[in-house]
Design brief:
2 domains; 2% strand; Hypothetical protein af1432; 3-stranded antiparallel sheet; mainly alpha; 465 residues; Arp2/3 complex 21 kDa subunit ARPC3
Length: 465
């Protein structure tokens, strides 16, 4: 179950409008449908009803309190969706919605002590997710009741899909409006990678209902351990991702230790590449792959064969230049030793010096055959080289760097990406650019390739060594 969990901050007006809209929809849904009135039931059934309501409210609160982090906007997720989906099978309207709202209100107020706007939003979106999914479930003929268990496949699948669409979708929109990332990226980070796990974990809601109907509280106790294991699985997946990121950082530091002139270069290239990819509204998985490839695009230079070339003060010989150009292949081979980086990340690293017209290396491919991530990294790599100080020249302005990219669009660089970069406000902010990009001028050699090119760690194609 996803929600927003971050520290106090100022939100744009559109976030408050979203919170108001979600809250209004949740309140309207509570009152627009007929209520199941338990006090109209016979006395023994009333006690059974209230006992079940209390048990599942408590179980939802406990499940939501055992949260784990989502790597975006300081958001968190929990397994509260399992008992909340179970309430839809057990109770008529509006009790599942009230349990959902109660869960978010208690946990955000007492456990996490969140700000009022976040408490209101999470309470409303929990209620909305439960309410709409319950409406869909009942409309398709789903059975509701605590006296007997009747499972229907299609209504339950519709319940689960609707639940996650509303829950994760509303949180993704909130994160997008507050942080500036695309809804696609936010949704991918909130639920994309865990979607299969979420769907399979939802089957525990069926088991939870069955065990409670048959065994009451002992049935709940039976499921405590499986629920704990599921939570640990989610937590372990997140920890594995964090470990991968830590290993990437270590590899980058090891590579940069070889050449002080490139200190920070890989991180800047990753930041620029990520900004370009976000402008293209790529998926969260694609963004992560591009970031990883950008961080490791020169990691092959940690091999001893490149050390004397990186330290050399003068111009490289043709033979040395051939050796240096092999760093893209060596980098790709090194990255491929990590199973999670094989495939697309490996290909981006191998091809990030392929020119758009096919004149690059190592394979001489061109145009759309070059992976989009590799084309992005080439531009990000070049931007960093042009806009940072070098031993033989001072850094260019952003406008001048754009002029150079435009000059070689279609030959060295993807022209569509160059146009995107030229109008990118996010890159302009990152690089401190001011004013519109200049129109390209005619010259026989790019300005960033002229001058003293003796320093062998210069990272700008096509003069890259």
């Amino acid at each position: 179950m996803s929600d927003t969990r971050a520290e106090e901050e100022l939100f744009p007006t559109r976030v408050y409008l979203l919170v108001g809209a979600v809250s209004a929809l949740a309140i309207a849904l509570v009152f627009v449908l007929d209520w199941q009135l338990p006090w109209q039931l016979p006395s023994p059934q009333q006690r059974t009803f209230w006992n079940a309501l209390a048990v599942f409210a408590l179980l939802s609160v406990v499940s939501d309190s055992l949260f784990f982090k989502i790597p975006i906007a300081k958001a968190n997720a929990s397994l509260a969706f399992i008992p909340l989906q179970a309430t839809i099978l057990l109770f008529g309207h509006p009790w599942p919605m009230l349990i959902g709202g109660f869960t978010a209100l208690v946990v955000d107020t007492l456990v996490r002590k969140k700000t009022p706007i976040r408490i209101v939003f999470n309470t409303a979106q929990y209620m909305l997710a439960v309410g709409i999914s319950g409406l869909v479930y009942r409309a398709l003929g789903g059975s509701v009741g605590i006296g007997d268990f009747a499972f229907l496949f299609i209504p339950f699948v519709a319940l689960v899909v609707t639940f996650f669409l509303v829950n994760q979708g509303s949180v993704a929109i909130a994160v997008s409006l507050s942080s500036g990332v695309s809804v696609r990226e936010a949704w991918g980070r909130i639920g994309g990678r865990a979607l299969v796990n979420d769907l399979f974990s939802s089957t525990l809601a069926i088991l939870l209902v069955f065990l409670y109907v048959r065994l009451q509280l002992p049935g709940i106790a039976i499921l405590v351990f499986p629920l704990f294991l599921v939570r640990q699985l989610y937590q372990m997946n997140r920890e594995l991702q964090e470990e991968l990121e830590e290993k990437l950082e270590l590899m980058v530091k090891a590579m940069e230790a070889r050449d002080p002139y490139t200190s920070g270069h890989s991180r800047r290239v990753a930041e620029y590449a990520l900004s370009i990819a976000r402008e293209m509204k790529l998926s969260a998985d694609a963004l992560d792959g591009i970031k990883q490839a950008a961080l490791l695009h020169d990691v092959g230079k940690i091999y001893e064969e490149f050390a004397p070339l990186l330290r050399k003060a003068g111009r490289l010989t043709p033979e040395e230049r051939v050796v240096m150009r092999s760093h893209v292949v060596r980098s790709a081979e090194l990255v491929a030793t990590a199973a999670k980086l094989r495939g697309s990340v490996e290909a981006m690293i191998r091809h990030h010096h392929e020119n758009y017209d096919g004149s690059g290396y190592p394979d001489g491919i061109g145009g759309e055959r070059i992976p989009i991530g590799a084309r992005i990294i080439m531009i990000a790599d070049t931007l960093d080289a042009m806009t940072t100080d070098r031993p033989y020249r001072r850094a260019m302005t952003f406008a001048r760097a754009i002029e150079e990219l435009q000059e070689y669009a279609g030959t060295q660089f993807d022209p569509a990406l160059v146009r995107l970069v030229a109008r990118s406000r996010s890159l302009r902010r990152l690089l401190g650019g001011e004013g519109p990009a200049q129109q390209p001028s005619t010259r026989s050699e790019p300005a960033w390739a002229r001058g003293n090119r003796e320093h062998t760690s210069e990272l700008i194609p096509p003069e890259l060594v």
